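Title: Comparing notes on inverse folding

I've been comparing how different people in this forum approach sequence design from structure. To keep things fair, I'm posting one structure and asking everyone to reply with a full sequence. Here's the target:
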């Protein structure tokens, strides 16, 4: 035999062949338990994620409804403010029209129109 034949190999199969079967089975059982625990934690995480998603959806629906209510309230408030502004404008116009200055100005304009019409009638009467 040469030295090459007696040297240990670095192959994967070599470790299995040198370990006793009960030790291999114990390691496999440990890996199975670890995998089961990981699967259990993953399942619990999935349940928690589902619950969080449900709560998130519910919260977003409440937020949407609250936003719609706020928008409706803002629209109504804007309509009320517009109505008040229109009412204030009408009152201001009526107040200004009720002043004697406007009445005097309108009377002068009407008299000027009547005077002009009379002058026009005399001019037409002389021309005919």
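Reply #1:
Here's my take.
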């Amino acid at each position: 035999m040469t030295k090459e034949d007696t040297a240990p190999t670095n192959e994967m199969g070599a470790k299995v062949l040198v370990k006793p079967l009960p030790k291999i089975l114990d390691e496999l059982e440990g890996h199975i338990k670890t995998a089961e625990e990981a699967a259990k934690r993953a399942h619990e995480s999935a349940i928690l994620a589902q619950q969080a998603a449900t709560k998130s959806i519910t919260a977003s629906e409440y937020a949407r409804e609250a936003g719609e209510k706020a928008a409706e309230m803002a629209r109504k408030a804007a309509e009320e403010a517009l109505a008040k502004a229109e009412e204030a404008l009408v009152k201001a116009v009526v107040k200004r029209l009720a002043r004697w200055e406007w009445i005097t100005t309108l009377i002068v304009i009407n008299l000027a129109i009547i005077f002009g019409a009379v002058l026009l009638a005399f001019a037409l009467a002389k021309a005919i």
